[in-house]
From TrEMBL:
It comes from the Bacteria. Gene3D superfamilies: 3.40.1350.10, 3.40.50.1460. InterPro entries: Caspase-like_dom_sf, Pept_C14_caspase, tRNA_endonuc-like_dom_sf. It holds the Pfam family Peptidase_C14. Residues 8-198 form the Peptidase C14 caspase domain. This is Caspase family protein. The lineage of its organism: Bacteria, Bacillati, Actinomycetota, Actinomycetes, Mycobacteriales. It comes from Nocardia tengchongensis.
Amino acid sequence: MSDRSGWRAVLIGVAKYDDEAFHDVPAALNSVRAFKGILTDPNLCGWPEESVTVVENPRKPIDIGRPLQEAALAATGTLLVYFVGHGELNESNELCLVVGDTEIDHVEITGLDYDNIRLILSKSKAGAKIVILDCCNSGKAIEALSGAESQIANTTVIKGAYTLTAADYAAHVPSPQLAETQTSFTKALVDIIREGVPEGGEFLDLSTIYGSLIQRLSAEALPKPNQRGTDTVESFEFTRNMAFSSHAHARSVAQQVPDDPIELEMLHAIRSRVEGRGVEFSAFAIALWKLIAPSTGECALFRAWGDASVSISGNYLLGPIGDRVRIDFVLDAHCRPIASGVDYREMDRLIYRMESAGQFGVMLTLSYVDPEVYERIRVSREPVVVVCGKDIVDILTSYGYDDAVGVEEWLNGKLSLGR
């Protein structure tokens, strides 16, 4: 994790109001706590606990202004402001954040005018400034915004900052308000961050998160959010992407070889049948691979090294029958005891052949690939498919050959192998 000692966040949730014109929003406190949860989660946003200030149910504008000013002055890296509660428009049609003692008839002097927040943030030395406003507007705010497209988003623009707002008009709070209820906007935002975006990269930037918010909220017929950004702040990497997978994981020895006696007998039956028989071992390797990849086309023995391994070249057919693309591959197969794994030398040999004769490689072994070797090809993203002992018994079992007798039947009948 990079140095985040200069990061500061102020999270504000207002649930209770004195003026009956503003309905209480119990979901606000649930939302601010949920947002803090993802912000400080080391597996997600990773903000240090001590850098995050939470303000719940502020009574007066200064209850927000003071901690916000302190955070803005202290921030040298990233400054984040999150607000959930009511947002109201003053007589100038500009946004005011509503606090506990805000009066509907005197919003401009009893609420926190967003111009004051803009001024505070503009004086901060933070390199990135992020403002997230989950404002639930009252009926009068809806009327005032009528015909004013993106009014709230437009009035919150700050130079060098990214602003995300819940809605142009009225944000949405689910009903009934249960103890665990969050506002619809914050719940969608938190869920996206916790679940990740499958098509995203290792980290999710603000723009990607916004795109997912649009899709999720639109699918539920909820108000559309808005974003505004300057100086490319929308590319700020906000969180790790929990749905990201750069490559298949390197499996341990225990994950590659079975421990069930019946499955071990299946592997023993295969090895005792094909060990030392290059042609039969090649036929076995090709037939097994075709069970895994049925679109495999022609295969041919390329070269054999002693009695323990065979090498095969082939092609995989991709696309509709009338217009298939042929992808060449090479397959190395090793017939060895369970306790003997594929080493660096053998993997390097496959990769060397793959670079000159195939677009991907297959390492098939009755045992396992050494974990360090496995890790190396995954970190370097080599296009190598590993088929180990556990994979072999799993695929045969899926076709109904679930014990040593069944394996013998398959070897005899399907491959016409003789002793």
